[in-house]
Each structure stands twice: as structure tokens, then as C-alpha cells.
Design goal:
- The protein is α+β, with helices and mostly antiparallel strands and 199 residues long.
- It has 2 domains: 86 residues, no CATH class; 87 residues, Up-down Bundle (Methane Monooxygenase Hydroxylase, Chain G, domain 1).
- 63% of the residues lie in helices and 15% in strands.
- The chain is built from 4 helices and 6 strands; from the N terminus they run E-H-E-E-H-E-E-H-H-E.
- It comes from Sphingomonas lutea.
- This is DUF2968 domain-containing protein.
- Keywords: Signal.
Length: 199
């Protein structure tokens, strides 16, 4: 299985990419890449963890770079014109990734609020254990109100999750549209001799 993933931090790919047990075997005719942009740890990748680690090894200077594994061969491209075109091809996916990140932030904030409500519910539950019947009724009303707030946050979380899934489908569609352009660009770099073979 292959992934197209916007990676915002250099540590993120470890969680976002997956190990590929077929890295040396049946997957050699497919193109994998890691595109590092200038001045940041941002990258766009399609491949597996082995690809990311190999790319990172070749990016000693921290500058922009494109690592490609295709047909069982690995290349590093540092040509500014090729890198600019690669970034332009990936721009729609990168923008969509930023939108997914913003949604993720909203989901995280909702989760924080749900957690705080859960803590309040736990405290009420503890108070209920030692309460009188009269106190129990009041605490029950408070618990019900917290449950209603928790339910509303759950609905908001579900709506954000549905939007996130929609953006994920769009990310896949954009990746499919970019594949032929990206493959042609890499083949051009290899033909022009600006792709350095590294294996």
C-alpha cells in the first residue's frame, strides 16, 4: 500500500508513512519520492519509511531536495528548476494538507474540551457516591447537563471527521492527477543528467 501524505514536520513521517515489507521486492517498478522544500522541515512524500529515511540521509545540508526511487533505482535531484516544477505540481496537495491540518487542530481542541467535560463528569460521579438522595437529584441534573454538552461536542467532532474524510478523498484524487506530471518531470531530470543516482 502506498500513501501520499503531507508531512509538516520532519518527525511526522515516522508516524505517517508505513514500513514496506516489499521495498526490495515486488514494488520496484513503482515510483516513490520525498520532496523536501527549502528553509523548512516540510516535505511531500509518496512511498514508505525506507524512502523517507533514505531521503533524509541524503539531505545533509537541509536544503531543498527530491529523492526518487523508480524501477529499483534511487536518485537525488537538487536542480532548482526541477525542484520548483515539482513543488508547483504538488502545490494543490500541499494546500489541501494545510487545510487538513487546520481541521485536525479543530478536532484536537474539541477533544480537549470533551476531555475536560469527562473530568467534570468523573468528579460528579465521585460526589454522587457520597451524596444524600436530595443531593443526588441535583447532581443528576448537573450530570445530565454535562452529558448534553458532551453529546453536542460529539456531533461537532463527527462533522469535522466527515469533513476530514472528504478532504482525504480529495487528496487521493489530486495525487492521481499529479502522478503523470510528476513521473514525466522525474524522467526529464534523469534524461538531462540532473538526477544523481545514489544506489
Amino acid at each position: 500500500m502506498r500513501w501520499i501524505v503531507l508531512l509538516l514536520l520532519a518527525t511526522t513521517p515516522v508516524a505517517a508513512l508505513h514500513a514496506n515489507p516489499e521495498h526490495d521486492g515486488g514494488d520496484s517498478d513503482r515510483m516513490s519520492y520525498v520532496l523536501f522544500t527549502d528553509g523548512s522541515n516540510s516535505s511531500m512524500a509518496s512511498g514508505d519509511l525506507d524512502d523517507f529515511y533514505a531521503a533524509r540521509k541524503h539531505r545533509a545540508s537541509g536544503g531543498p531536495m527530491l529523492y526518487v526511487r523508480q524501477d529499483g533505482q534511487s536518485f537525488v535531484i537538487r536542480d532548482p528548476a526541477i525542484l520548483a516544477r515539482a513543488q508547483a505540481i504538488m502545490a494543490p496537495q500541499m494546500e489541501l494538507g494545510r487545510r487538513q491540518g487546520a481541521l485536525g487542530d479543530q478536532q484536537g481542541e474539541l477533544g480537549r474540551r470533551q476531555g475536560a467535560l469527562g473530568g467534570q463528569q468523573g468528579q460528579l460521579g465521585a460526589r454522587m457516591a457520597d451524596s444524600t438522595p436530595r443531593q443526588m437529584a441535583e447532581l443528576g441534573r448537573e450530570m445530565s447537563a454535562l452529558g448534553a454538552r458532551q453529546s453536542e461536542l460529539g456531533k461537532q467532532q463527527a462533522a469535522l471527521g466527515a469533513r476530514q474524510a472528504e478532504l482525504g478523498r480529495e487528496q487521493s484524487r489530486l495525487a492521481e492527477l499529479a502522478k503523470p506530471q510528476f513521473r514525466a518531470l522525474v524522467e526529464e531530470a534523469i534524461r538531462r543528467g540532473v538526477a544523481q543516482r545514489v544506489n
